[in-house]
Every structure is written in C-alpha cells, then in structure tokens.
Amino acid sequence: MLLDVQDITTYYGASQALLGVEFRMGEGEVVALMGRNGMGKSTTIKSICNLVPPKTGRIFFGGKGTERMAPYKVARLGVGLVPEGRRCFPNLSVHENLVAAARPGKWTLDKVNALFPRLQERHAQMAKSLSGGEQQMLAIGRALMTNPRLLILDEATEGLAPVIRQDIWRAIRQLKAEGLSILVVDKTLSELLPVADRCVILENGRSVWTGVPAELTAQVQDRYLGV
Ligand SMILES: Nc1ncnc2c1ncn2[C@@H]1O[C@H](COP(=O)(O)OP(=O)(O)OP(=O)(O)O)[C@@H](O)[C@H]1O
C-alpha cells in the first residue's frame, strides 16, 4: 500500500470541508479523484500533503503515519504535488526551477527535457514569461525532479490550449507506462478515464463511490458528477 487515507475530516477554521474521506492507492496505480465543484478534491490533496492537516482520521504514506508532519517532510517522504495554479519561481529560469527541486533518482534534467521538449527549448527563459501551459509543464517537471513515489496533479490541464493539453495527457500516459503512481484531479473525463486504474468520487466532503472506470456508468456519472 502506497497511500492509505483513513476516514479523514478537515476544517478551514470552523468550517468543515471533509466529513470522512477514505481511499487507498497501491504502488504504480493511477487513481482519479472525482466529484463536482466544491466537493473536497483539492482539500483532500491538501490534507494528504498536510498543507491543511486533517483534524481526525489518519493518513499513511508508504506505511508511515503523516500526522503532525510538516508539509516539507511529507514531500520528502515522496509526495510530489503539482498544485492548482501551477506555482513555479517566477524570477528563476526554467533550468533553475528544475534543478532547484532536484533530488537523486531516475528523474533527471535530461529525462524531464525529453518528456517536455518545449521546456528544453526554453531552458534559459524566466518562468514568469512562459505561457500558462508551459508553466504547467514546468510545474510537473519540478515535481518529477524531486523523484516522488506519488505524483499528485490537481487540475493540471485546466484552462490550457488544446494542443498543450494533449502534450500534458501524453506525458501523464508516459508516466503511467513507466509505473509512476499518480493521483489526479481533472474535469476531462474522456482523457482521465482511459488512464485511471480506479476512481474515487467525493460528494459533500465524503468519499461515496469507488470503482474501476468501466463501472462508472452513465447513471453513476449523472448521480455524482452531474453534468
Ligand atoms: N481556504 C478555504 N477556506 C474556507 N473554505 C474553503 C477553503 N478552500 C476550500 N473551502 C471550502 O471547502 C469545500 C471543498 O472545497 P475544495 O476546493 O476542496 O473542492 P474541490 O472539489 O476541489 O472543488 P473545485 O473543483 O471547485 O476546486 C468547499 O465548500 C469550499 O468552499
């Protein structure tokens, strides 16, 4: 078991955002975390990273309980987060952004450059002058440079041009093929479902459905994803 989220509840001040989320991920699995807007997907991710620590429940990463662990320590255990809004260092170059994140492992500068040739072509450019899609690639590249055991992608393709989205989905498929464990939140089901091994659906801060993509019938989609 790589990640074991056990019945967590999470608050923002007095307001409760998660009322009981549980799911597990095995090594090498791609899990799609789904649900309508505001149902708790980002909060679940922030809870896993201890950016907003859960109040009750437990989270184990690689068998280790992460409660009271500082976010950087959770990252060091091997959780690589690409947060919503693709944060990079704006005044560092592409190259500097990537090497600043580096930790030893199979993901090197060369490998990231091969995954995203657009980044290689722009290695000396300041991150702030990249397009939104290129910044997203840089954010993913940075996370990979930490050589994570689990990559978390929160809306990594949102608001990007179609060609760039294709590049990012191609990269995600390649990462899966290489055996990387990925927890992914994304609204494009036509891309997400073929790559997912399993889906976890949240509703009002609770995990309410889990299954393989083939079980995600139109009925289930209507009920929980309501488009
Ligand atoms: N910083 C915050 N302070 C207070 N409440 C918050 C904060 N962030 C999120 N919430 C609330 O927590 C609940 C879950 O939000 P969350 O962002 O986790 O949902 P989500 O499923 O990721 O939605 P979206 O797809 O819209 O990002 C919502 O009711 C939201 O209003």
From TrEMBL:
CDD domains: ABC_TM1139_LivF_branched. GO terms for biological process: L-amino acid transport. Residues 3-227 form the ABC transporter domain. One of its GO terms (molecular function) is ATP binding. Keywords: Amino-acid transport, ATP-binding, Nucleotide-binding, Transport. PANTHER family: ABC TRANSPORTER ATP-BINDING PROTEIN (PTHR43820:SF2), HIGH-AFFINITY BRANCHED-CHAIN AMINO ACID TRANSPORT ATP-BINDING PROTEIN LIVF (PTHR43820). This is ABC transporter ATP-binding protein. It comes from Aliirhizobium smilacinae.
